[in-house]
Amino acid sequence: MKKIVLLGYMGCGKSTIAQNLSKITNIPFLDLDKCIEERANLSINEIFEKHGEVYFRKLEHEMFVELLQSSENNIIGLGGGTPCYANNHELLKGDDVVSIYLKASIDTLYNRLVHNKSKRPLIANMNEEEMKEFIAKHLFDRSYYYNQAKHKVSVDDKSVEETVQDILEILA
Ligand SMILES: Nc1ncnc2c1ncn2[C@@H]1O[C@H](COP(=O)(O)OP(=O)(O)OP(=O)(O)O)[C@@H](O)[C@H]1O
Ligand SMILES: O=C(O)C1=C[C@@H](O)[C@@H](O)[C@H](O)C1
Ligand SMILES: [Mg+2]
After folding, report:
1. CB 120 less than 6 A from any atom of ligand 2
2. Is residue 1 predicted with pLDDT exceeding 90?
3. Mean pLDDT of 128-149
4. Cys-Cys link to 104, which of 11, 40, 108, 122 (CB 3.0-4.6 A)?
5. Is 40 a domain residue?
6. Which of 59, 5, 57, 60 is CA-nearest to residue 29?
7. How far is CA 7 from its chain centroid?
8. Residue 21 structural domain
């Protein structure tokens, strides 16, 4: 079964773009973060607080494998860190997987995340200056994994509709 997997840094728009793509294509959308929250019956913040990040990464890997194994066609929106742990980047290369990196610049990410960080435990307690530096370094560290995707779409200065259109061209 075909799996369209959207990946990229926090705030690049995986969830937003996947929802819109799902409406147009009628392919059901699964958000990995949401699936984890439902399975654990805890928010992502609560999982990090109560059990720590290592436990979260284990749940994240198990849930990603489970979603890829299901027999339906799906759009799967990954968490920002998913490709960077537990060899999950290898799963982006599977035969039935169309993996797409939504590539955003540091400025785009910062502008989207600065007013929207409370539900993202890795940045929730940072001030604005710390956040910019963190995003720059973290994005650099993670880029190797994001670039394992089969396709790349730049999202800077594009509307949701324009990014969705770029993805439809990849899928055509
Ligand atoms: N052109 C755009 N494309 C996508 N998102 C946009 C755009 N312009 C503004 N946004 C906003 O940027 C934010 C993107 O957040 P979203 O939750 O979709 O990202 P994400 O990649 O799923 O993040 P996370 O990894 O934390 O789950 C949303 O608040 C969305 O409304
Ligand atoms: O970038 C990350 O490591 C994360 C991104 C979010 O989607 C969540 O999966 C969680 O907050 C961790
Ligand atoms: Mg998301």
Report:
1. yes
2. no
3. 96
4. 108
5. yes
6. 5
7. 4
8. 3-153
CA 63–ligand 2 middle distance (angstroms): 14
Whether 160 is covered by a domain: the verdict is: no
Q: Identify any residues that bridge with 100 across adjacent strands, giving them in sequence order.
A: 6, 151
Q: Which atom belonging to ligand 1 lies closest to the Cα atom of 10?
A: 25
61 pocket-lining for ligand 2 (C-beta < 6 Å): no
pLDDT for res 116? 87
Residue 32 falls within a domain, yes or no? yes
What ipTM score was computed for the predicted complex, to two decimals?
Answer: 0.96
Per-residue pLDDT averaged across 141-156, rounded? 98
CB contact at 8 A, 32 and 64 = yes
Ramachandran category for residue 148: left, alpha or beta (phi over 0 → left; psi -120 to 50 → alpha): alpha
Domain harbouring 63, CATH code = 3.40.50.300
- Segment 59-88 mean pLDDT: 97
Number of domains in the chain: 1
Q: What is the mean pLDDT of residues 108-133?
A: 92
Q: Which residue type sits at 130?
A: E
Which residue lies with its CA nearest to atom 4 of ligand 2?
Answer: 80
Q: Give the nearest ligand 1 atom to 102 CA.
A: 21
Predicted pLDDT of residue 100: 98
